[in-house]
Design brief:
The complex is a heterodimer of chains A (about 110) and B (about 120).
Chain A (H helix, E strand, L loop, with lengths): L3 E4 L2 E4 L5 E7 L7 E6 L6 E5 L3 E2 L7 E6 L2 E6 L9 E6 L6 E2 L3 E5 L1
Parallel strand pairs in A: 2-11
Antiparallel strand pairs in A: 1-3, 3-8, 4-5, 4-9, 5-6, 7-8, 9-10, 9-11
Chain B lengths: L2 E5 L2 E3 L5 E8 L7 E7 L5 E7 L6 E3 L7 E6 L4 E6 L8 E9 L3 E5 L3 E5 L2
Parallel strand pairs in B: 2-11
Antiparallel strand pairs in B: 1-3, 3-8, 4-5, 4-9, 5-6, 7-8, 9-10, 9-11
The chains are: A mainly beta (about 110), B mainly beta (about 120).
Chain lengths: ~110, ~120
Amino acid sequence: DIQVTQSPSSLLASLGERVTITCQTSQSISNNLNWYQQKPGQAPMLLIYYATSLQTGMPSRFSGQYSGRSFTLTITSLEPEDIANYFCLQHYSAPRTFGGGTKLELK
Amino acid sequence: EVQLVESGGGLVQPGRSMKLSCAASGFTFNNYDMAWVCQAPKKGLEWVATISYDGSSTYYRDSVKGRFTISRDNAKSTLYLQMDSLRSEDTATYYCARTHRYKDFDYWGQGVMVTVSS
């Protein structure tokens, strides 16, 4: 199975701050990685697919990049509604595997 | 609007069975593969099972093979997960997810909690 290591597991940030979350995969997956946002009690929402493509309807302050086996999700300027859990998913091969998640909180 | 609504969770004793349902709306259900994903308390997400758009193919993670059965009723736009011989380690929130051909899991339900305990 492909291992996905996500960091940090928790993050304190201020409104307006630039936030970066990283997922590292144990083997090359090309760009087959998604990012999701999940708020307590709600369904996860797709933010970024194929590592860099913004899902329709998601704010443009969210972006994704990748280089080799390292993938990053960036929020350019943190808004109150961005406080949530974030996780990544590799869909290069079966079984699908997920990053451990990042809990983003306000400083 | 795509909606996925899970139901059927609750408390169940070890060794017993439980059946989860996921009612889909807002899209043509029989055009999409569907999946179940779970998240145990304080743990990360794990893929559980996938079923093809027509139900002809199913796939399971090793830990549930032979115990869980994924199925679907396209006439009712409903996905199911029959869970037999439940173990304490199956305790988790279970999510159904639509599998887009290119985006993979693009829509998820809000999840349903399953607690396996005596």
